[in-house]
Task: structure prediction
Amino acid sequence: MRMAVRMMSCEIHPAILEYIELVEAGEPRACKDQIALVRHVRRCFETEEIYTDAVLLEKYISLEKYFPFALFPWEKFLIGLWDCTFWRETGRPRWKTVFAMMGRGAGKDGFIAFDSACSVSPYNPVQGYNVDICANNEEQATRPLLDFVEVLETPKFEAKLKKHYYHTKETAKGRVNRGAIKGHTNNPKGRDGLRPGKIIFNEVHQYENYDNIEVFTTALGKVGQPRVGFFTSNGEVSDGPLDDYLERSNGILFEGVPDDGFLPFVCRLDEIADIHDEANWGKANPSLQYRQDLFDEIREEYNDWLKHPDQNGSLITKRFGIRSGKKEIAVTDYEKVKATNKPLINLAGYPCTVGIDYAQLSDWAAVNLHFRVGEQRYDINHAWICSQSKTLHLVKPPWQKWVADGHCTLVDDVSIHPKLLADYIREAAGVFQIKKLAADNFRWTAISEELKKLGFDAKDKDKVKLIRPSDIMQVDPVIQDLFDRELFHWDDNPCLRWSVNNTKRVRSGRATGTDTGNYYYAKIEAKSRKTDPFMALVASMVIEPALGSGVAANLPDVSAMAFNF
Result:
């Protein structure tokens, strides 16, 4: 017997439908993320028991007349879904969380200001609905609040708005709702007294970890209908919250993952080639068709970028939402680094090279086991972190999780004893065929005694290579080619990926006017952004010729060998 499937069909409010139909019509062109989003929203209204509070939405939109700008269709779309759409059974928000990434200039601050004004207005039935705006710096945290204060101080509206709001230099409050709008800089301490109804994180691309996000979001629940908003342009911080939100968005929009109340509003070019057609620019900025001044400004920036791409790299990331890195700085494009997250094969018994790197044993150290199988390269990378390092508190990414996941070892001592690295290599030698070992020429002395015990003596050139800058210059083109052709397999190793993004390529001789066209590697930032894991990989790549063509032959029986690196 055929089972009947119950389908709910809920009417979509015209303010929401307007943007949906614009995207579906492709005028202007929309990115694939937006096309998938409006399809998802339609499906939700067709199949779920949800509704939009039309009266509430229209009251919120009525506040538009007090602001110096008209609401764009995408702004009404978000307000309608985030603030005014609910589950029929519980009355709770259908989409508790909004993640909105779009090109710089779209009007994120203005939207936050307007939405905050709605949230503390007399129209919001939830009393004491505080709005906390959080950002890394004071300007980003307070700009939306100051925009709203300017509205409240507009002479022709001031008397009327005073009946509903009042403000100081640090806050704006609703007289009836009693909710307050406040800006907070990125300091996760001392927030236990928060009672937020809505938390908005501005420019999330700057966040390197979840410290501040967790402090604020764990304060939710004291006020009804809690909501969270993440607003940002794209940025260069990798393996942070922004990447996680983009990955979650991709799962919802393209892989059928349930959204669980997360609304992914992502605007960006579909590919870098889109940048050369002005008709595509609106894919990254849903406000662009309404702002000719902004369009002209971006056109000027684009023309400058064509002439000097190395000096205007932020155009691609900030304006168009594609993270590519600056060609004169980044080791490779961000997407190429992400592409290394491919599984390892069982390499037990395979030949490998070993690279070691550390700047100071009182800081970080790393060992890389490097394999070649045909054109494919496989790397097993492990790092050690000194718990008493003077710069450890500056490291923002979640290194504690990396330790828990086995990518790193935390050493509770004043320094990382060379024996720890030697023991790791000894264990590896019981599983793999180590052909050669490489380390920095100037730092060999500190670890030489322990490695001699394993048979690695610098006097034996067939077993040990002491790396010099010229060696790195020679292997850099090979590394670039492997990234470009996505031949690296590192498994899911965020510590190694992070270290790549902490490294820059520097032209040899440029500072002295004798540019050789070769590159060496250097740290982007000296204290907080460690490069040791990647530089250990580079060292192992320098001696890759010891692996020959990479075709495995005469391998031992691996059935009883452990593979737990």
